[in-house]
Amino acid sequence: MIHQYIERILRAKVYDVAQESPLDYAPLLSKRLDNRVYLKREDLQPVFSFKLRGAYNKIAMLGEREQANGVIAASAGNHAQGVALAAKRLGIKALIVMPRTTPEIKVESVKARGAKAVLHGDSFDEAYDHAMQLAGEKGMTFVHPYDDPDVIAGQGTIGMEILHQHNGAIDAIFVPVGGGGLIAGIAAYVKFVRPETKVIGVEPDDADCLNRAMAAKRRVSLKQVGLFADGVAVKQIGKETFKLAQRYVDEVVTVNTDEICAAIKDIFDDTRSVAEPAGALATAGLKKYAEQRGVSGQTLVAIESGANINFDRLRYVAERTQVGEHREILLAVAIPETPGSFLNFCKLLGKRSITEFNYRYFDASQAQVFVGLSSSGEENDCAGVIAQLQAEGYKVTDMTANELAKDHIRYMVGGHAPCQLHEVTYSLQFPERPGALLKFLLSLGGRWNISMFHYRNHGAAFGKVLIGLQMPKSERKVFQKTLAEEGFTYQEETDNPAYRLFVGGQENKR
Predict the structure, then answer these.
(1) Residue finishing a domain among 142, 158, 173
(2) Are both 272 and 341 inside the same structural domain?
(3) What CA–CA distance (Å, rounded) separates 164 from 2?
(4) Which of 9, 65, 329, 409 fits as disulfide partner to 405, beta carbons 3.0 to 4.6 Å?
(5) Does residue 347 have an active-site annotation?
(6) What is the CA radius of gyration of the chain?
(7) Are the CB atoms for 119 and 93 separated by under 8 Å?
C-alpha cells in the first residue's frame, strides 16, 4: 500500500496550480516552549488552504470523458474553493453543493472562481447527499474532500515538501484532522522516508472522530460534533484515510476551543497572519503536547492549514484567547453586601489586575459577583487564588472552564428573577441563516412562556441561545422531542452553577 501512495505523491500534479508553501520558523513560540517550532504555511496557497492540492490532483487525473462531463463536490468552504479553482484552471465545469448556512463570502468566492454554487440543507451531510444525487443524475464525477487516493496523494505532497525543506531531524509533525485526507497523505510519505519522525494528529475535543476510532480500532460515527473549528467538523473518519492512519499515525492530541483561540493568537504574533480555527488546530496540539510531555530542545512542525476565517469571528476568538492562554481566571464570588466590601476584595487581590467585574444588587446581605482576574499562566495559579479567597472567608466557584458562563452568563449578569418562575433552562444551537431564529420560536408554538433569552451571533455557521421556559417537569420530554425534530442540538442547564448563581429565579438561588 505505502509504495503505491509514494508513487502517487511523487507523480502528483499539484504544482500546476499550488505553490511550495514556506516552512517558517516561529521564534516567539520556540522561545516560550523551549523547542524549535516551524509552521508549514498552507494559508498562503491561492485559496488560503491546503485543499487545493488534493482537489487539483484528483481532477487532473480524470480521463477526457470524465472531464468533459464536469465535476461536483459538497463543501462549506475550503474544499469548495479548491475544486472551483482547479476546475477553472483545467477548463472543466464545476458544481458545488453548499449548506444554506455557508457564509456569503465563501459562496461568492466559489462563484468568482467560475463554479456554480447550489445551496441545499443546513449541514454538510445534507449537502453531501444532494451532491451525490446530482452526480448520478448529471453524470458528473464527485470529488470527495478526503476519502480518495488521488486527493490523499495531493495532500501528501505537503509531507514531501517538509522533508525537503528541513534536512535535519524532525521529532514530530502535527497535523489537523477532519476526514483524514491530510494526515493520511503526510503520514504515508513521512513514515516511508523518515520512520523515526512522529506524525501526530490534532482534533477538537468535541469532534475527535480519529481519536475515537484509534481507541476502538474501528471507525466510529459521532452523534454530533462541535462547530467552532468548522473545517474539521466531521462525524466519521474516512475509510481509506483510517487504514493509513492506523498504520502510520503515532497518536492523536485533542484540544478545546480556548486552546485553539490561543493558538490563533500565537500564529498571529509570529507571522502576522490570521489562521482559521482549523488552521490553528495543529499549533494548539503542538503546544499542548510540548507542555504536557515536558519536551524541550526538539524540532516540531505544525501545519497551518488555512486562513479562511470570517472577520466577525475575530471578536469571539479574542474573548476566548486569554482563557486559552491561561491568562484569565473567571470566578463567581460571594461578597458581603456592605459598603467597602468591593474595596476589601480588591485589596486582597493585591496587584493582580481585574479584567472583568459584573454585579447587580439582589440580596441585602450578600452580593454574587462574576469576576475575571489576570493570571500568570502557571498551572496552579487559579487554585492558588481560590485558596487565598477561601482562606479569607469568601465562597468561590471556579467558572474558568464553564462553557455556559463564557458563552452567555458573563454578558447577562444583571440579577436573578424577582420571584419563583419554575423555570427550566436549555442551551442550544441552530443554523445561522435568515429566518432561523423565527423558525425556532415558531417551533415552540406558544405552548411555553419564555422567561429568559440570550442569543449571540459569533459570525459562525451556527447561533447559540440560552433560553429559560416556564414549564412543568412532565412536559420537558415533549419540549426536548420538539428540539430534536427541528434538528437543534441542546443541553439542559438548569443545574449549571453559572445559571443558578447569576440569573436563576428564586427557586434556583441556593
Answers:
(1) 142
(2) no
(3) 19
(4) 409
(5) no
(6) 25
(7) no
Integer CA distances (angstroms), 410 to 36, 270, 358, 387, 456, in order: 38, 31, 7, 23, 12
Mean pLDDT of 428-433: 72
- Asked if residue 409 is part of any domain, the answer here is no
pLDDT bucket at 510, cuts 50 / 70 / 90: very low
Domain assignment present for 31: yes
Find the mean pLDDT for residues 90-102.
89
Greatest CA separation found in the chain?
A: 82
Domain shared by 117 and 131, yes or no: yes
User: Regarding predicted confidence, which is higher, 389 or 303?
Assistant: 303
Q: Does 124 lie in the same domain as 97?
A: yes
Residue bearing cell 497535523:
175
Enter the C-alpha cell of residue 501: 448563581
Q: Pick the catalytic residue: 51, 106, 191, 198?
A: 51
Instruction: Examine the residue annotation and report whether 305 is marked as an active-site residue of this protein.
Output: yes
Structural domain harbouring 105: 55-142
Q: What is the pLDDT of residue 367?
A: 74
Cell numbers that stand for 483 in this block? 428540539
Considering only residues 39 and 365, tell me which one the structure prediction assigns the higher pLDDT: 39
Q: What residues pair up with 489 in beta bridges, in sequence order? A: 429
Are 180 and 255 found together in one domain?
yes
Q: Which of 49, 109, 123, 305 is catalytic?
A: 305
Share of the chain above pLDDT 70, in %: 90
* pLDDT of residue 40 exceeding 90: yes
On whether both 357 and 422 belong to a single domain, the answer is no
Q: What is the secondary structure of 367-399 as a DSSP string?
A: EEEEEEEE----TTHHHHHHHHHHHTT-EEEE-
Q: Which of 105-114, 150-159, 181-190, 234-243 has the lowest mean pLDDT?
A: 105-114
Q: Are residues 446 and 488 both part of a single domain?
A: yes
253: domain CATH number is: 3.40.50.1100
Judge whether 319 lies within some domain.
Answer: no
Q: Would 406 be classed as within a structural domain?
A: no
